[in-house]
Amino acid sequence: SRLGILIVRHLKRLERVILGYLEVSDGPEEEARLGILETLQCTIEHAWPRMPCRLPVLLKALLRLLWDVHTERGPTPEPVRAALLHRATQCLILLDRCCQGQVKVLLEGVHSSCEENRVRECLRKVQESS
User: Fold this and answer.
1) SS3 for 91?
2) Structural domain boundaries of the chain?
3) Which of 76, 86, 97, 127 has its CA 20 to 30 A from that of 103?
4) pLDDT, tens digit, 9 for 90 and up, residues 37-55
5) For residue range 76-98, what is the model confidence (pLDDT) as tens digits?
6) Which residues form the signal peptide (predicted)?
């Protein structure tokens, strides 16, 4: 957040780091994933003009994270899973705002075909956000 809009200078490298952390579980407390979701949220807030061109990659990574968190049956406590789902949903809502509703359009088909309640609930929150 100290860099503000100047973060755009480092977006390409930062995007690779964010995607790498989102892909891999880091143990029961998921500290790295929670931290990187906070970083992503801050990045979206500050570099919002550059997010539309990064939408496909970030949307895919966040959807994969939602699915992985829901389906992983490891030692991760339920409150940590809930926090991951919440932060990922908040990132999707922010992405939708800076991409003029494109996320909602892209998620329409996913929401209707998804049968998992927790993932559907996250997608519903994105669809209903204003």
Assistant:
1) helix
2) 2-128
3) 76
4) 999 999 999 999 999 999 9
5) 999 999 999 999 999 999 999 99
6) none
